[in-house]
Design a protein that fits this description.
- With about 190 residues, the protein is α+β, with helices and mostly antiparallel strands.
- The protein has one domain: Ribosomal Protein S5, domain 2 (2-Layer Sandwich).
- GO terms for molecular function: imidazoleglycerol-phosphate dehydratase activity.
């Protein structure tokens, strides 16, 4: 079973996270940020992973530290859970429609952190959630997990739908790229390592 547990405690947040890549889509999410909880639950369900997150953050300031630190810890757990990456497909790319919105998310589990984020979210907030934190979450995840991630919005008007499309797509590419392919001996790289 490819799984990991990570705890991160700073002066701003305490995050406890358990991840099982080979799960069933079960989740227990409490970040203190309602909309973010919803997005992580969607990601988990569509990525067939099991995820438990408990975050106590300085929400009296804003939600930035909580969202970013969950991204950091999720990236660390993902990297740990993958181990030596032997046999994984490595690449995945999906289009995900959500009503009028359509996003494309592509990943390379390469060991080289890079985020390309081409998404215009029409509103500054969804409820009380600052929409600029979507990019912050993915940047934190990428920097800790060492993946290359491209996220593009092809079209969309509703901020909730746009973000939901992206998180569902993110779960789906994680599932596809981490799937074991019996044809792959070792890692899928001419270098012999990822």
């Amino acid at each position: 079973m490819r799984s990991a547990e990570v705890v991160r405690k700073t002066a701003e947040t305490k995050v406890e996270l358990q991840l099982n890549i080979d799960g069933n889509g079960n989740s227990s999410i409490d970040t203190g940020v309602g909309f973010f909880n919803h997005m992580l639950t969607l990601m988990t369900k569509h990525g067939f992973m099991d995820l438990a997150v408990k975050c106590d953050g300085d929400s009296d300031v804003d939600d930035h530290h909580s969202v970013e630190d969950v991204g950091i810890v999720l990236g660390q757990a993902f990297l740990q859970a993958l181990g030596d990456k032997a046999g994984i497909r490595r690449y995945a790319s999906v289009f995900t429609p959500m009503d009028e919105s359509l996003s494309q998310v592509s990943i390379d589990i390469s060991g080289r952190p890079f985020l390309y984020f081409d998404v215009e979210i029409p509103t500054e907030k969804v409820g009380t959630f600052d929409t600029e934190l979507v990019e912050e979450f993915f940047r934190a995840f990428v920097n800790q997990s060492g993946v290359t991630l491209h996220i593009q919005l092809l079209h969309g008007k509703n901020s909730h739908h746009i973000i939901e499309s992206i998180f569902k797509g993110f779960g789906r590419v994680l599932d596809e790229a981490t799937a074991i392919d019996e044809r792959i001996k070792g890692v899928r790289s001419t270098k012999g390592m990822l």
